[in-house]
Design a protein that fits this description.
This protein is α+β, with helices and mostly antiparallel strands. The N and C termini lie far apart (77 Å). The longest helix is centred in the N-terminal third of the chain and has 33 residues. The strands form three sheets. Strands 7, 8, 9, 10 and 11 form a five-stranded antiparallel β-sheet that branches. Helix 6 packs antiparallel against helix 7, helix 7 runs parallel beside helix 10 and helix 11 runs antiparallel to helix 12. The protein has 25 helices and eleven strands.
Length: 647
């Protein structure tokens, strides 16, 4: 790129207008594209909604204004586009640092580095701030032209956008000082924005592979992820329309303004450090992957450790699923050493820009990194952090669930017993894992979930053995949990809903099949529905449904393809056990709120019940009512498939 910068007379100037003009003329597509984006998502969106006569036509004028402005601000508040254009702007205005020819030419001119830094910094940030101000002014004009008066929210958007822009651009300039390659700068920018949360997730994946019972999806990074700016802003900076008790829009709420202030303060630090790095930057590093000497070994170690561990996790997960591996530590160890070594030497090749990198000094450095990787894996394999052994105290538990065949809540007086069973499972780790390896070893996944009083949740899942030995041992966790599942009250709650006693059934049906392969849906009459419900309850009380609900016992009984569907109304409780298990916190918050939607909204539900030949009361009732007869029969799934094949 050809630069024509006149000789400066003043050596104490901190700003150069000629360089500013050159930046604007050379890199105008950056600010033009950013301006087009902002005009489209803010004033453009407001104008389209405001001029559309069918937009929000069923709401009040006030609600309509809130929804139009709130919807536009919600999209414009997204930080990702701002970060993208900030990275591009920083990369462009400091692009002369990435080729030796341009770097030597610019720094040979009678322009000091402070003047260059300030001018280029201001140039880039103006590319971003001016389009935001123009979009704000345009949006205000569009609002006033369409009688939208709640424009104060646009001002709050502008403040947040300017704050995010200041931080994103300052961080991009800071990162630009670390490399001498233009294509590496956006790569570093993305890595820095997700490095912390990525490392946390990588550690969690390692734990889930090496720690017994830990679930892969049990991951909550928490507030510490503020160290991953783009990730944290995406999750915590947002605008939304708020509604009152009558479901009418009553305002626009912008969350995360204080967070933006924190990042603005950090941006000032980035600017100062970036200038110090620029002042000491060696021009000879132009074209190098890393332009700061002290960072080069850190780069090698980071790539080896993070890259090697990440690839090892991927390989171990695939081989574990394909081969049914139970103990992942040996495989994980081998993969980490192999992939870590590959990543270490690739990083060194990038730094040296040469394939001949296998020197004695680097061999020793790699050995240290390999030992650190092994020590890292041993921390979790030996459970030095107590992840596997972690169990709550009974007094810390708000609600406890266990899920084998279906989720059930353990009564408060049984929580201590559940924790004891959980401890028993952990103590039999090797025994249970050996059962999984054995060809004749039958097992069933079982989940323990504790909702703790401090608002957190602890969840673990294990392959509990369901062989005859464990089923007959009444003290084993398997037999104990199965005994709980077979209790009449719990089974009814699973089949008919948590508040089944207050269900008001108003219709039902059954799928029927003929010998010719035909099918039909038969809808029960009111009197028939009453008798069928009585038969279903009687079968539950006699334990006839156990064979069709307790899949962990792996019984040979096969259910009919003729499922029974029931529709009912229950104003008190619309939750079934599955909803309750997965959404316990939400359920509790709804039931505790006075006049909540949970209490007011009509709870109209349906259930579908599979049954089989053991459910003698249900089968006899269907035959007695003539629903099942010589023409229409009950068939198992295998029998039904045979009929279809014959037809």
């Amino acid at each position: 790129m050809k630069w024509e910068v006149p000789i400066m007379k003043s050596k104490t100037s901190c700003f150069n207008t000629t360089i500013l003009k050159k930046n604007i003329s050379h890199y105008w597509p950056v600010w033009v594209l950013f301006l087009c984006y902002l005009l489209l998502v803010l004033p453009g969106d407001i104008w389209l909604d405001a001029t559309n006569e069918y937009s929000y036509e069923m709401v009040s004028e006030t609600g309509r204004q809130y929804q139009i402005i709130g919807s536009a601000i919600r999209v414009a508040m997204e930080p990702a586009p701002i970060f993208l254009f900030a990275a591009v702007a920083a990369m462009m205005v400091f692009s002369y640092l990435y080729t030796a020819k341009n770097a030597n030419m610019i720094h040979a001119l009678p322009v000091n580095r402070f003047e260059l830094f300030v001018t280029n910094y201001v140039s880039g940030i103006l590319f971003l701030l001016i389009p935001e101000i123009v979009a704000f002014v345009t949006a205000v004009i569009v609002c006033l032209a369409n009688q939208l008066t709640y424009i104060e929210y646009l001002f709050w958007w502008l403040l947040c956008a300017v704050g995010v822009t200041f931080f994103a651009y300052s961080m991009a300039v800071f990162i630009a000082m670390f490399t001498g390659l233009i294509f590496a700068m956006p790569l570093y920018f993305m890595i820095v924005n997700y490095l912390y949360v990525g490392c946390l997730y990588l550690i969690h994946l390692v734990k889930s592979l090496l720690c017994y019972g830990l679930l892969e999806n049990e991951w909550n990074p928490g507030k510490s992820c503020i160290l991953s700016p783009l990730y944290y802003l995406n999750n915590n900076l947002r605008a939304r329309v708020i509604y009152d008790n009558t479901n009418t829009a009553s305002g626009v709420r912008i969350d995360g303004c204080q967070l933006v202030l924190i990042y603005v303060a950090v941006a000032v630090v980035f600017i100062v450090v970036a200038y110090q790095l620029y002042k000491r930057r060696q021009i000879e590093y132009a074209g190098d992957f890393v332009s700061i000497g002290i960072v080069r070994p850190i780069f090698r170690w980071g790539v080896a450790f993070c890259g090697g561990t990440c690839l090892a996790v991927c390989a171990t997960t695939m081989l574990k699923d394909a081969r049914g591996i139970v103990n992942c530590f040996p495989l994980m160890l081998v993969c980490t050493l192999i992939f870590g070594g590959i990543c270490f030497w690739l990083a060194e090749m990038l730094l040296q820009k040469n394939f001949k990198v296998f020197r004695r000094k680097r061999m020793g450095e790699w050995a240290v990194v390999a030992l650190a990787s092994v020590a890292f894996l041993l921390l979790f394999e030996l459970d030095l952090f107590g992840v596997e052994r972690r169990l709550p105290k009974a007094e810390e538990v708000e609600a406890a669930f266990v899920y084998m065949d279906y989720p059930l809540q353990v009564e408060e007086e049984d929580i201590s017993e559940l924790i004891a069973l959980h401890r028993q499972v952990i103590s039999h780790k090797k025994e249970y894992q050996q059962n999984v390896k054995d060809k004749d070893g039958k097992y069933y996944y079982t989940t323990f979930r504790y909702y703790l009083k401090d608002g957190s949740m602890l969840e673990r899942r294990y392959e509990l053995p369901v062989t005859e030995t464990y089923l007959s041992d009444l003290s084993s966790p398997t037999a104990t949990i199965l005994a709980w599942e077979k209790q009449e009250e719990r089974l009814k709650m699973q089949m008919f809903g948590m508040d089944y006693k207050n269900n008001k059934y108003y219709s039902g049906y059954i799928d029927l099949f003929s010998e010719d392969g035909d099918s039909k849906t038969y809808y029960f009459e009111e009197e028939q529905l009453t008798q069928i419900l009585e038969a279903l309850e009687k079968d539950v009380e006699e334990g006839n449904f156990n064979a069709y609900q307790m899949y962990s016992e792996q019984q040979e009984k096969e259910a009919f393809a003729n499922g029974i569907g029931l529709n009912y109304y229950n104003r008190n409780n619309s939750y079934n056990m599955w909803d309750y298990f997965y959404r316990y916190r939400e359920y509790m918050s709804e039931t505790q709120e006075v006049g909540s939607a949970h209490e007011q909204v009509s709870a109209d539900n349906s259930i579908y019940i599979n049954f089989g030949e053991d459910c003698v009361n249900t089968v006899e009732t269907l035959e007695k009512l003539g629903i099942v007869n010589e023409e229409w029969h009950l068939y198992t799934y295998k029998e039904q498939e045979s009929l279809k094949a014959e037809k």
